[in-house]
Amino acid sequence: MATKKQALRSSAQNANISSTKSPSKPVQSKILNLKDTMESEDEKESGVKEMFEVIMRKLSKLDDIDSCVKSMENDHPCRARSMRDNLIFYNINEMKDENPTDIVHGILENQLGFENAKDTVKIDRAHRLGRPNPALFTTRPRAIVCKFNFFPDKERILANAKKLKGTRIAISEQFPEEIMQVRKRLYPVLKKARQEHKQVKM
After folding, report:
1. pLDDT, position 152
2. Is residue 105 in a domain?
3. Where is the composition biased (Polar residues) (predicted)?
4. What is the pLDDT of residues 116-162, one digit of tens each?
5. Residue 128 forms beta bridges with which residues?
6. Is there a contact between 144 and 129 (Cβ–Cβ < 8 Å)?
7. With contact defined as beta carbons under 8 Å apart, do 104 and 144 qualify?
8. Which pLDDT band holds residue 52 (cuts at 50, 70, 90)?
9. CA distances from 128 to 15, 80, 87, 156, 169 (A)
């Protein structure tokens, strides 16, 4: 009899210990739900962080673009000054292995009347604009940009450019693209003023 009582008592104690160590199913379910909620919150937080990083990267790119635009705006006078001694020569037939400097000197001597231009007019550098296309060497030749060493030489050439009237060749000053766009918009006004015999200069 005593042995049966001891067995029942031992079984009850084991049951109590087991129930203490292992939560009941409702408690386990709550714990699992809490874990899922925490993981879900972590995922949400991770998603927010990722979205924030994307936004910051885009804002950084916008800042870079803004800085670039401001740099270009501030750079206009510098680029204009660097082109101060430059002239562009248009509609001059291209040749393979040509020397643009010799071509410009030839125009100065033969078309504009500059004597001994090779000796009296120093050219720092001259080259064609854009990529070569042999198929267009005569029909649509690339323009030549030429940088003169002495600013008054450039002014003398511009003053004599009217001698090219009736030929294909034309000469103009070189400006930054932004200034060229402004000049293009002003050209109709200039043309109209000249038609009205007004003394105007751009």
Report:
1. 95
2. yes
3. 8-31
4. 999 999 999 999 999 988 888 888 999 999 999 999 999 999 999 99
5. 144
6. yes
7. yes
8. confident
9. 98, 20, 12, 22, 15
Q: What is the mean pLDDT of residues 69-77?
A: 56
Number of CB atoms found within 10 A of residue 167's CB: 10
Measured CA to CA, the distance from residue 7 to residue 161 in angstroms comes to: 124
Alpha-carbon distance 100 to 124, whole Å? Answer: 12
Task: Give the count of beta carbons closer than 10 Å to the beta carbon of residue 184.
Answer: 9
CATH number of the domain to which 98 belongs: 3.30.70.1820
Residue 185 pLDDT exceeds 70: yes
Which domain, by its residues, includes 58?
31-82
- Main-chain dihedrals φ then ψ at residue 128, nearest 5 degrees: -80, 150
Whole-number mean pLDDT of the chain? 77
Judgement on whether residues 68 and 101 belong to the same structural domain of the protein: no
* Residue 122 contacts residue 153 (beta carbons within 8 Å): yes
Geometric angle at alpha carbon 188, from 144 and 111, rounded to 5°: 35
- Token pair of 59, please? 């804002």
- At 15, the pLDDT band (50, 70, 90 cuts) reads very low
Does a structural domain hold residue 70? yes
Between these two residues, 115 and 45, which has the higher pLDDT value? Answer: 115
Q: Where does 70-128 show beta strands of DSSP type E?
A: 86-90, 123-128
For the chain, first and last CA: distance in Å? 125
